[in-house]
Design goal:
about 500 residues, Dipeptide-binding Protein, domain 1, six-stranded mixed beta sheet, globular, about 20% strand, D-Maltodextrin-Binding Protein, domain 2, 3 domains, alpha+beta, Dipeptide-binding Protein, domain 3, 16 helices, disordered N terminus, single chain
């Protein structure tokens, strides 16, 4: 199977190379670990989708590698003293890929869509926004029902991506999915997509910051097998790959044709349990928190990191890493305790506990799943691994068709982005349907407070409940982003969010 995929990918990329060379075009070919879900920022939820959006859809603001906020479609912003009004001044003379002006009316249309559209995964991210108003041709005012500390962070990601109102209206009138032909205001415009095969973007000649764009085309290739991605990088059929396998790092370091770039991520990897989403929540581990405690006590995160990743990542037990200022030092990583784990299993009335663990169908997830399976097996859990294509697994998770899911999050600048949407009762990505009124109260209060010390105390109390007691999710480790590049690719800047920004990248 690996050879087949390598052959198909090599043939495809060789053909695209010849076409690009014939046209004199500079093409960057990027290997992705999965195929993105919908290319619609309002509903999208995959990390690889965010990588594509970094070239396709500009936002109101962006971040720097040091996590400061900088202008993008907005040139300036002002927060009122009471924290209830955020006003943006937009960049003049900017157009969407279809020629529609990026003005205040367009921004209002996008933000209202993110905020109110049925099925929006951005709605809970910007829930305190009660109204968006065009107060001038290039001035937009967000009116909040309460102060909201994470708002700028949310608007530096998909919630701040602005879509062409003309394209949105056309898709609605024709009964088509906007994701099939997305129109944004980024440096590259959508060309084509073949599911599970490629996404092609072409340079947008009228981009507002076109002087920083040297590439003519970007082609994204979803290749779940890390060894196949690396082989294509080594052969020159890929120019850049994201999420190298840690065991392959020495090959990259010693290959004179390649460069290795790394940075710590803001996110986490863990196991989400189905506690209340449909009939499949009625599993032993979904209904008994003492079994989830036993499951965690059967794990040794340090051994998992060493065996699966040669120690390349950072172990952790919270939605933020031990290096994050919001990490709760009073809730340290629990040591493996098989005796207590077995006692908890027996006290819950079981000798053996069946658990179906859904995993994405890539070698990295398979390795982690097998280690988890072996470790928890010693404590009385019979873990069955169910490997499914990533986007399909996400769909099953949303529908509640899972017991446990090995799934991560790429992370956000503000801690709220790693916590609220997954843990609050009505969070858009709370697919396990965890609910605790006190946790809800603490997370909502943390959104109101701007003082970091006060926010940390609120998060600490919330962590003690949902991390230390209820365990709707068991956090395992925090990734370090690992990129491999051909030496002819220059100007790539690593960001903690793991995204590949095309500004400044050259090839040749």
């Amino acid at each position: 199977m690996r050879k087949t995929r390598l052959g198909r990918t090599a043939a495809l990329l060789t053909a695209s190379t010849l076409l690009a060379a014939a046209a004199g075009a500079a093409e960057l070919r990027i290997g992705l670990q999965e195929d993105p879900d919908k290319l619609d920022p309002t509903v999208a939820r995959t990390f690889v989708g965010r990588i594509v959006f970094a070239s396709l859809c500009d936002k109101l603001v962006d971040i720097t590698p040091a996590l400061d906020y900088v202008p993008q479609l907005a040139t300036a912003w002002t927060l009122a003293d009471d924290g209830r009004t955020l006003t943006f001044e937009l960049r003049p003379n900017v157009r969407f890929h279809d020629g529609t002006p990026v003005d205040a009316a367009a921004v209002v249309a996008s933000l209202e869509r993110h905020r109110t559209m049925k099925g929006s995964n951005r709605a809970s991210e910007i829930r305190p926004v009660r109204k968006v108003v065009a107060s001038g041709p290039l001035t937009v005012r967000l009116e909040l029902d309460r102060p909201f500390a994470p708002l700028l962070a949310q608007l530096s990601d998909r919630a701040g991506m602005i879509l062409s109102p003309t394209a949105l209206a056309k898709a609605e009138a024709e009964g088509k999915d906007f994701a099939l032909q997305p129109v944004c205001a980024g440096p590259f415009r959508f060309k084509e997509r073949v599911a599970q095969d490629r996404i092609v973007l072409e340079r947008f000649a009228d981009y507002w910051d076109k002087e920083r764009i040297a590439l003519d085309r970007i082609t994204f290739l979803p290749i779940p097998d890390q060894s196949v991605r690396l082989a294509n990088l080594q052969s020159g059929d890929l120019d850049l790959v994201e999420r190298l396998a840690p065991q392959d790092l020495d090959q990259v370091r010693t290959d004179p044709r390649l460069s290795l770039v790394t940075i710590a991520s803001q996110g986490y990897q863990g196991i989400t349990f189905n506690l209340g989403n449909g009939p499949r929540a009625r599993s032993p581990i979904g209904q008994k928190r003492e079994l989830r405690e036993a499951f965690e006590l059967a794990l040794d995160r340090r051994i998992l990191n060493e065996v699966a990743f040669q120690g390349a990542h950072l172990v952790g037990n919270q939605p933020v890493s031990p290096e994050n200022p919001y990490y709760h030092e009073g809730l340290p990583i629990p040591a493996r305790d098989l005796e207590r784990a077995r006692a908890l299993v027996r006290a819950a009335g079981f000798e053996r506990v069946p658990v179906e663990l859904m995993i994405p169908n890539n070698p990295e997830a398979q390795r982690v799943g097998e280690i988890v399976q072996a470790m928890t097996g010693e404590a009385g859990f019979d873990v069955k691994l169910l490997a499914i294509e990533f986007a399909a697994a996400l769909d099953r998770q949303t529908k509640g068709d899972f017991e446990a899911f090995l799934i991560g999050w790429s992370g956000r600048t503000d801690p709220d982005g790693n916590i609220h949407v997954f843990t609050e009762t009505n969070g858009a990505l709370n697919d396990g349907k965890y609910s605790d009124p006190e946790v809800d109260r603490l997370l909502e209060e943390a959104r109101l407070v701007s003082d970091p010390a006060a926010r940390k105390k609120l998060y600490a109390r919330a962590f003690e409940i949902f991390v230390g007691r209820d365990r709707p999710r068991i956090y395992l480790y925090h990734q370090r982003w690992l990129w491999g590049l051909r030496k002819e690719v220059r100007g790539f800047v690593p960001y903690p969010d793991g995204l590949i920004r095309p500004q400044g990248i050259t090839k040749g």
